[in-house]
Amino acid sequence: MSEMEQAMRGQFVFGMSFVRSQATAASVNVFRIVKHLSEIAPGKYDALFERLKDIQAQIGAVLARQPETVATELVLPLEHVTREMSDQVGSKMAHLGDIMARLNLPVPPGFAITSLAYTRFVRDTGLQEEINRLVQAVGADDHATLLPLCSQIQQMILGAKLPEDVAQAIVESYHALEAKAGKDVRVSLRSSALGEDALGQSFAGQFRSVLNVAEEDLLITYKEIVASKYSPQAVTYRLAKGIPDQDVAMCVGCMAMVPARCGGVVYSRNPLSIRDDEVFVHSAWGLA
What we know:
Pfam families: PPDK_N (PF01326). Catalyzes the phosphorylation of pyruvate to phosphoenolpyruvate. The protein contains ten helices and seven strands. Helix 2 runs antiparallel to helix 3, helix 6 runs antiparallel to helix 7 and helix 7 packs antiparallel against helix 9. It folds into three domains: 2-63; 75-257, Dna Ligase, domain 1, CATH 3.30.1490.20; 261-288, no CATH class. It has 288 residues and is an alpha+beta fold.
């Protein structure tokens, strides 16, 4: 109880794993109290067992709630994506779709594998239940446990089989992309997790992106990016920020590779000095 009181005072950050572990510990301790009372006065406190079971069921129902995805499609073509769909495809792909649809700027063709596809993958295979069990007792500072646990979860994801309709939707979307970008087009697969670039948090560089992916590697690469949600740095960041694991559905963007002459990023001001309002361009030569 003292640990929960400290958490409520804001003395340390915590996530749903802390809430679940504390609820379990409290439930076990209360059961012991009721058991001891029953042993001291046989028959007098038996009604408490049923009452405790009812309370445990109510707490369990609350803790078992999962955020429901609003996505209705497993995959969406990029030209059909807008910024209002960030809760279906993640903010990264939503903004790219918006640039294509509203600003009419050149954007490589592609598609977004939605939060529904991710949810189907982790729930239909039983991965989510097992992941919840594994992460329940780990803390952000428990590095000795965190590293092997993350590796175990990532291997579970890579070894799981995608639901047939999810795999089919990804492959069919690639074939549709071939009609726009050419036969056997190589693609890049990039993370576009829900909340990845939300206000007050940033997962920049914590999730995986893979370039020059061929059709035969699409599905395993998708699973690799989903597995990157459980890299040690990403898990530590979520725990430190108190972000529930279930709130970060891993959407994935798939876009045709561009034979770029050069590439880079433009800063509207100097990122190292707030007093310098000059535009800064950082670039590198491409492979074209």
